[in-house]
Amino acid sequence: MSAFSAAEIDAFREAGRISAKARNWGAAAVKAGALARQVQEGIEEAIRDEGALPSFPAQTSINHVAAHYCSSPGDPTVFAVGDLVKVDVGAHVDGYPADTGVTVDLSPDGRWSDLIEAAVSALDAAISLLKGGTSTRSIGVAVERTIRKAGFRPIANLTGHGLTRWSLHAPPQIPNVGELGGEVLKTGMVFAIEPFSTTGAGFVVDEGKPQVFAQIGDLPGPGACNGALLDAIRGWHGLPVARRYFLDLPKNPFERCLRDLVKRSALHAYPPLVEASGAPVAWKEHSIYLSEHGPEILTA
Fold this sequence. Notes:
Blueprint: H1 6-29, H2 36-49, E1 53-54, E2 59-62, E3 65-67, E4 84-89, E5 91-93, E6 96-97, E7 100-105, H3 113-128, H4 136-149, E8 153-154, E9 160-164, E10 167-174, E11 190-193, E12 196-198, E13 204-206, E14 212-215, H5 227-235, E15 241-242, H6 251-263, E16 267-270, E17 273-275, E18 281-283, E19 286-291, E20 294-297
Antiparallel strand pairs: 1-5, 2-4, 3-17, 4-7, 5-6, 8-12, 9-10, 9-11, 11-19, 12-18, 13-17, 14-15, 14-16, 19-20
Helix pairs in contact: 1-2, 3-4
């Protein structure tokens, strides 16, 4: 990944500021009895109110769901007392994205506090290593060591990722375990680090109907699909969109078109990711600019 210009870094900084503000709003809105869909929509409204757009649909993953839980248009899910909720938020400014999140403990006795702290401490340990020339493997070692020392396991098949214009998952991948990774971080990179901690097996699998989609291939001509849908997807330049973004389109043609685009490999579908053994998962994420002076947390 090449270094960015000063103007591009400023766009990343603004996206990070807005993402952090929306994340904090979302975390405060996660309460027992609140509707998950309304919290997600509120996060996205907060981003738009700041003059940016979501870099991906806001998500609130509960308990054993580690990531990618985005509400369907009529999702009735409400948060309950005792839930462990991951609030995943991102904004972009002119295509320059940020990605951040926190875990909210809705238990009355703080039962998830140690699990959450393990992820927080692992992120801190990773950030403390950051400089030009740091290997991603060494970050994975630090994350895994920190989480295991706390008595938990990291999620091995979820990673951090590079950030570049119109892309949330650019190189490098930044692992959460020590046996993965091999790339070297360079000054000028922008990336997200996101340790996950669990009491379970330590890996995730797909489960449930996907609600999030991103363009990965060429879209067909308008005669093969709903033109309004194709125009909307093109307008996101490869950033993810949610099924609930398209309530104004007739359901049956829309669903047929969506299935066809996935089948054509024009779109990639992102189902919820759940801990394989059904165990609870905690997590924390920041977007970071690795400047010549050291790491700058864009989503602090």
